[in-house]
Amino acid sequence: MADPWQEAMDHAVEVARKAGKIIRDALQNEVKIMCKSSSVDLVTKTDQRVEKLIIESVKGRFPKHSFIGEESVAAGQPCILTDNPTWIVDPVDGTTNFVHGFPFVAVSIGFAVNKELEFGVVYSCLEDKMYTGRKGKGAFCDGEKLSVSDQTDIRKTIIISELGSHRDPETVSKVFSTMQKILCIPVHGIRGSGTAATNMCLVASGAVEAFFEIGIHCWDVAAGAVIVQEAGGVLLDVDGGPFDLMSRRMVSANNKTIADRIIKEIEIFPAERDDVPAKK
Ligand code: LIP
């Protein structure tokens, strides 16, 4: 039976590649930097331009579909996932990296139907790597099939986490305390690319064993979630419960053994859900 969402996935790949070229070209020019929720939560005209390109391009092909876009939500659109086919878009994942020229920036496009993630596309545009994952059909990078690491010994792993944009001292202290406990297991190392979507693709490719973060958004992880699962990995909440796309917290790992070991060390701090309107 033909895949009803193959055309949409092919379009996601095509528009992600176009968006990536805009991002690469913009890196050569002056980048106008603006702030959103804090002085470290950055947005640029390129973020807004790329999201507009993706949404307009998709609306032209799939006019009845819905969207959740990082910059549309920042502009006031509610972040609610319905049963309608929905594109979940982070136009420039790794905006801070983009502003600084740090070479990890991704276009992340997730797609859900009936609230179930169907496919994910992550284009790491400075590396020129196209990651894709289709529910039930595997995960790939530039056509090469992806498989997570088979490591089960936590002492032989590399773990990714990010400091994120929460910068109150109590939260930063919890983040550092978690990282200290993980480092002292010990693990081989802790890394971070600065973009959740890329971090998840590194889990899917077997380059690292796990990535966890509290404070991410649905648009950061929707595409990567499909890619990790289709590469044989697992997704959980930071408390060990089921992954919840809207919860702004997540553990992705090569297997449950590693995920459970990491979860034991995570000091959880509160993060407003994506689908709960921010307090005025
Ligand atoms: C980024 C995430 C990253 C997080 C950053 C930022 P953005 O997304 O991908 O995991 O640590 O704070 O939220 O804002 O560059 O699209």
Give a verbal description of the structure:
The protein has 2 domains: 6-145, Fructose-1,6-Bisphosphatase, subunit A, domain 1 (Fructose-1,6-Bisphosphatase, Chain A, domain 1), CATH 3.30.540.10; 154-263, 3-Layer(aba) Sandwich (D-Maltodextrin-Binding Protein, domain 2), CATH 3.40.190.80. Helix content is 34%, strand content 24%. The protein contains 8 helices and 14 strands. The protein has helices at 6-28, 45-61, 70-74, 95-100, 169-183, 196-204, 218-230, 256-263, and strands spanning 33-35, 42-44, 66-69, 86-93, 106-113, 116-124, 129-134, 138-141, 144-145, 158-161, 189-191, 210-214, 234-236, 249-253. A 7-stranded mixed beta sheet has the order 3-4-5-6-7-8-9, with helices on both faces. Bound molecules: L-MYO-inositol-1-phosphate (LIP). Residues 70, 90, 93-96, 162, 164-165, 195-196, 213, 216, 220 line the site of L-MYO-inositol-1-phosphate. Mg(2+) 1 binds at residue 70. GO terms for molecular function: inositol monophosphate 1-phosphatase activity; metal ion binding. It catalyses: scyllo-inositol 1-phosphate + H2O = scyllo-inositol + phosphate; 1D-myo-inositol 4-phosphate + H2O = myo-inositol + phosphate; alpha-D-galactose 1-phosphate + H2O = D-galactose + phosphate; 1D-myo-inositol 3-phosphate + H2O = myo-inositol + phosphate. Its main location: cytoplasm.
What are the defining features of this structure?
five-stranded mixed β-sheet; metal-binding; 8 helices; IMPase; seven-stranded mixed β-sheet; 2 domains; Inositol_monophosphatase_CS; Fructose-1,6-Bisphosphatase, Chain A, domain 1; 280 residues; D-Maltodextrin-Binding Protein, domain 2; alpha+beta; binds L-MYO-inositol-1-phosphate
